[in-house]
Design goal:
The chain is α/β, with parallel strands linked by helices and 174 residues long. It is built from 7 helices and 7 strands, in the order βαβαββαββαααβα. 50% of the residues lie in helices and 18% in strands. The longest helix is centred in the C-terminal third of the chain and has 22 residues. It comes from Sinocyclocheilus grahami (Dianchi golden-line fish).
Length: 174
């Protein structure tokens, strides 16, 4: 494994919890590279069919991993995606699972046009901590952290904590 000068970070959580807002702001403040996996898949057409029930393309996880492999080896990447168990464990130095209270999440998803089963399933996913459990199974427990993501104050606090963590990581590893 190559020596990395900057850490790789995974931001994960149910759709609508604030991963993209946090990731973009974090990249601006730290100079790390931000990758939204949904956008990456869209640009490279990294799909494997279409899910009629949820009305969305199905991600080709293998092709996404292939696409990201070189970038991740260099370090300094923030990955944003609602799934996490298909990324290689060796990629990440820390994993943040964003959590939002159900009423806020419901409203955020509804404003994005989510309806019916897609809306209900995503809110249930949050209630049952599905993504957090997925992260705990896929990565070492000590690198997985939950962050509240309900208010602008939460966003600011999360940014400050993660920036401090990055600075400390860089001191410890360079």
């Amino acid at each position: 494994m190559r020596i990395m000068k900057r850490p790789n970070i995974l931001l994960t959580g149910t759709p609508g919890v604030g991963k993209t807002t946090l990731g973009k702001e974090l990249a601006q403040r730290t100079g790390l590279n931000y990758v939204n996996v949904g956008d990456l898949a869209q640009e490279g057409q990294l799909f494997d069919g279409f899910d009629e029930e949820y009305q969305c393309p199905i991600l080709d996880e293998d092709r996404v991993v292939d696409e990201l492999e070189d970038k991740m080896g260099d370090g300094g990447v923030i990955i944003d995606y609602h799934g996490c168990d298909f990324f290689p464990e060796r990629w990440f130095h820390i994993v943040f699972v964003l959590r939002t209270d159900n009423t806020s999440l419901y409203n955020r998803l509804e404003s994005r046009g989510y309806t019916g089963k897609k809306l209900q399933d995503n809110v249930q996913c949050e209630i049952f901590q599905t993504i957090y459990e997925e992260a705990m199974e896929a990565y070492k427990e000590e690198i997985v952290h939950q962050l509240p993501s309900n208010t602008p104050q939460d966003l600011e606090r999360n940014l400050e904590q993660i920036v401090q963590w990055i600075e400390q990581w860089m001191k410890d590893n360079n």
